[in-house]
Amino acid sequence: MISELINERLIRLNLDATSKQDVFNELSQALVDNDRVSDKAAFIADVNAREALGNTGFEAGIALPHAKSDAVTKPGVVIGISRDGIDYGAEDGERSHIFFMIASPTNGGDHHIEVLASLSSKLIEPGFTQALLAANTPSEVMTLLTQPSKESNNTGPKKGLIIGVTGCPAGVAHTYLAAEALEKAADELGYEIKVETNGSIGVKNAPTQDDILRADAIVVACDKQTDMTRFNGKAVVEVGVKEAIRDGKGLIENALNASPYQAAGTSKQSTNTNAPSTGTTNWRSNLYRYLMNGVSHMIPFVVTGGLLIALSLAIGGEPTEAGMAIPEGSAWQQVLDVGVIAFQLMIPVLAGYIAYAIADRPALAPGLIGGWIANTGSFYGAEAGTGFIGAIIAGLLVGYFVKWVSGINYHKFLQPLVPIMIAPITGTLFIAALFIFVIGAPIASLMDSLTAMLTAMSTGNYILLGIVLGGMAGFDMGGPFNKVAFLFSVGMIASGQTQFMGAMACAIPVAPLGMSLATVLGRKLNIFEATEHEAGKAAGAMGLVGISEGAIPFAAQDPIAVIPANMIGSMVAAVMAFGFGVTNSVAHGGPVVALLGAMNKPVIALICMIAGAVVTALVCVSLKKARKAQWLQSAA
């Protein structure tokens, strides 16, 4: 495959580029000169669009920019080498020296994935990158790329079979690099290996049931959800995909000494004490994986529901005293209703799939039900549910509870009922009772206390009130704090004090607009996941019509950085609105309300919203960047 897509004219040994965009420009020109690309600007735009989903700068000075593009007339790969290196934003923070730019036609199959898989076997070879950097002519590079891989020195009988599973969130380079690393390590240890890759072109090389039965150990080096129940009773080690690239041999040795894995609903859960990551690091890694699973399943509901609601309100909505409303009989009401259904489902889905990540299928139903109860305040006498924060709590509690229930050593006659009846029913009753009888009362009491506090403050300092209202608006985006601030402001409209709703209307869209802007500002810093970049586009649209829930996926995935940023930006918007005397006579917020004439100073109101969104974006990017730098330092 490599020899079909590259030739000596597509090799640039001494790049003049001094920046990432210069690299794209210089390598793209080589593709144009060799009749692989018809429109250079369009191809670079597609490369940048792919880069926005996740930085393609990897460890050891290697970068793999790629794109599927209508501008590609014939698939090709161009290689560039920078002697001084480029600040590409690589994951290890080092400068990048070797660039493989892969061009694939939009309808020409998955050439870029196939090439990445082929290159992985080369890139993982000891000394290959050093030899590539030392090459003086394009022919030497071609020789390095096309020469057969070194034959295994271990030709004797194999000790046994190892099964590997690799996968990264983007499903591209790390997936195949990890697979190659495991294959090489297994060969050195004298084992046969079969590696399943969970890449962007789907699951490939999945082991059969017979393979699993005869396997001596399983290595799951995967950052995405995979079916673990099939490995029940086998020695298993679970780590992130990068661990396989760093130390494939060590992972296999750990897996061979690991305790048998017990899937939920089979028998007592064993703890694998031989896994390389333990203690606080392992706990944080698992928690992140659980949250990522919930967020990734929730995002389609947020995007679908948010955009349908935004579209219906923006086109068919009119400002009324009760908020933005669609005239009776309008077809846009049905569009709005469908969007509302998606929004109602997103919180239960978040909770359900967090629970699923912890305890597999037996936890899914109670997790979904627990999320619905958590988000429905009427179950426990509150005016609003607990929002996404309650969903995260419900998902984690259900997951660990079901994992414990499933781990009990049941009689063999009861064992088949555990995953389909015992665990789901007990998990549902547990989380329902917890929210209704334990968590619910404090939540309802908290909302009453917050309302009383705001009422007492309503005649006081508007700057302090703006800070409190804005902070509550940005804290939980539809949860009890946000809802109390909103309902208080709506209630003040009836008494003729519309300045409170004016401040609230300016604070409401700050979180989604700020997160949308943050994903744009943070593209080159590689601080957002690929799914977040897509969610950022939808969040921007939701923010325009005052749907604060558009920021929930970001807050659920990284609450430490996102929630403070949302609160600070919302505070700025609310304080500015109070200071400029902005008022709002309808129970809704966002730019759409200002543009439709419900606010007395629409231009000033828009400035307040923009200022808040900019502050939120800058704070979020700064916090994420600081945490990434800290992580890189600790990893080093």
Write a structural description.
The protein is of the alpha/beta class and 636 residues long. The chain has three domains: 2-146, 3-Layer(aba) Sandwich (Mannitol-specific EII, Chain A); 161-277, Response regulator (Rossmann fold), CATH 3.40.50.2300; 284-635, no CATH class. Helix content is 58%, strand content 10%. It is built from 24 helices and twelve strands. It has helices spanning 2-5, 20-33, 40-53, 111-123, 128-134, 138-146, 173-189, 209-214, 241-246, 248-256, 279-316, 332-359, 364-374, 387-406, 418-457, 462-476, 480-494, 499-507, 510-521, 530-544, 552-557, 559-580, 591-595, 602-635, and strands spanning 11-12, 62-63, 66-69, 76-86, 96-105, 161-167, 192-199, 202-204, 215-222, 236-239, 318-320, 323-325. The strands form three sheets. Strands 1, 2, 3, 4 and 5 form a five-stranded mixed β-sheet that branches. Strand 11 and strand 12 (323-325) form a beta hairpin. The two termini are 36 Å apart.
By DSSP (H or I, 4+ residues per run), the number of helices equals 24
Overall form: globular
Category from helices, strands and their pairing: alpha/beta
How many individual domains? 3
In which range does the helix fraction lie?
A: 55-70%
Low-confidence stretches: 265-281
- Beta-strand percent range: 5-15%
Outline the biggest β-sheet: 5 strands, mixed
Kindly report how far apart the N and C termini lie. Answer: 36 Å
- Beta-strand segment tally: 12
Cα radius of gyration in angstroms: 27 Å
